[in-house]
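Q: what sequence does this backbone want?
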């Protein structure tokens, strides 16, 4: 694959060296950027495969490339994609690329086939041609903006503080969907595989920095057991945000979502931010609920939506960031409305006191 870079156009013959050039440059860089995997010209590339494996851990983004004119180039794609999954950071941005899309007459792999592969591995997909400069800018723009977004979502945890800003959050959903493991990941940044089923309610407090402010988060982790339902119901009041969780590997976990969401609507503040979470998205082989189905449910109930994995730490930062920024946004909106009401009232007052007005 050729890539347009500041140093000029790189053509097909240089492709074998690009990866090592890139990886060499990452060696000297404190924050390595992107790792590019080429899946053509297999003989030479196989040698690089083990070299690549040692760089995955540091990469913020990985491009996995095949050649749309060469069927062989997708035969061992599975191996590369498995390597990426096993060796790279779960938060690294991955993009599948079908290169040489200018060579229409020699095409052996259709766009639809490329899309199918990308859907199986749940990564974005682009067809590009470096020769005719097709989609190259878009590809790099997508990669870089996704990498920046992921960095942006990281909220710094800080020591307890006497801040006045306190958000109450509550997490609900059927038993075993992974509520406690999500909260554990959010608060302690670790995954515990053997968490005991929650008895009644657990409380966690963390402090995070958000837009130059410290926010105290009071997080209530509820039990999904039927017998604790009325206890959970008594905790919605005053909550700024509610996480409603289901398990993407368990169809039963969405069956009674309606009940949970009705409780949230009836018992929490009308302005409470609601996020529907499809947990355990690492467990692709046992998936029973697709992303599209999750999105549809979220639309139906007017909630935000994210698929996460507390096990492999996928989208957990984004989850907390989204919740806090939405609560913050609403708070700001409410404050502006209050300020406007105050202003209007003072204008009324001003009208009343036309003579000798001092306001
Ligand atoms: N594969 C996978 N398993 C997970 C994930 N999150 C949680 N689990 C597993 O799901 C099981 C239930 O997790 P919990 O966090 O205890 O579930 P809960 O919703 O708090 O359950 P209750 O407290 O009984 O309401 C545990 O065995 C976890 O290891 C995940 O992201 N991926
Ligand atoms: Mg629990």
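A:
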């Amino acid at each position: 694959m050729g890539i347009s870079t500041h140093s000029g156009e790189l053509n097909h013959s240089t492709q074998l060296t690009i990866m090592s050039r890139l990886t060499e440059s990452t060696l000297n860089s404190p924050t390595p950027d992107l790792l590019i995997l080429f899946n053509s010209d297999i003989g030479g590339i196989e040698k690089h495969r083990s070299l690549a494996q040692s760089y995955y851990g540091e990469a913020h983004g990985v491009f996995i490339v095949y050649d749309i004119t060469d069927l062989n180039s997708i035969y061992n794609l599975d191996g590369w994609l498995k390597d990426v999954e096993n060796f790279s950071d779960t938060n690294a941005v991955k993009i599948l690329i079908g290169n040489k899309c200018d060579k229409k007459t020699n095409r052996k792999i259709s766009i639809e086939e490329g899309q199918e592969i990308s859907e199986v591995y749940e990564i974005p997909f682009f067809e590009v041609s470096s020769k005719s400069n097709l989609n190259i800018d878009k590809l790099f723009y997508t990669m870089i903006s996704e990498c920046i977004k992921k960095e942006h979502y990281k909220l710094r945890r800080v020591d307890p503080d006497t801040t006045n800003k306190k958000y109450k959050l509550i997490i609900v959903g059927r038993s075993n969907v992974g509520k406690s493991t999500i909260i554990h990941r959010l608060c302690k940044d670790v995954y515990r595989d053997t968490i005991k089923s929650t008895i009644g309610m657990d409380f966690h407090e963390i402090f995070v920095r958000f837009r130059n402010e410290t926010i105290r988060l009071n997080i209530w982790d509820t039990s999904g057991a039927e017998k604790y339902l009325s206890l959970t119901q008594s905790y919605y009041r005053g909550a700024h945000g509610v996480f409603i969780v289901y398990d993407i590997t368990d169809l039963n976990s969405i069956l009674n979502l309606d009940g949970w969401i009705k409780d949230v609507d009836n018992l929490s503040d009308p302005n409470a931010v609601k996020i529907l979470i499809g947990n355990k998205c690492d467990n692709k082989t046992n998936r029973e609920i697709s992303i599209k189905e999750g999105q549809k449910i979220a639309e139906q109930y007017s909630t935000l939506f994210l698929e996460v994995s507390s096990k492999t730490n996928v989208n957990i930062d984004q989850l907390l960031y989204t919740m806090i920024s939405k609560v913050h946004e609403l708070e700001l909106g409410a404050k502006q409305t209050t300020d406007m009401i105050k202003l209007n009232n003072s204008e009324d007052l001003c009208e009343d006191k036309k003579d000798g007005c001092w306001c």
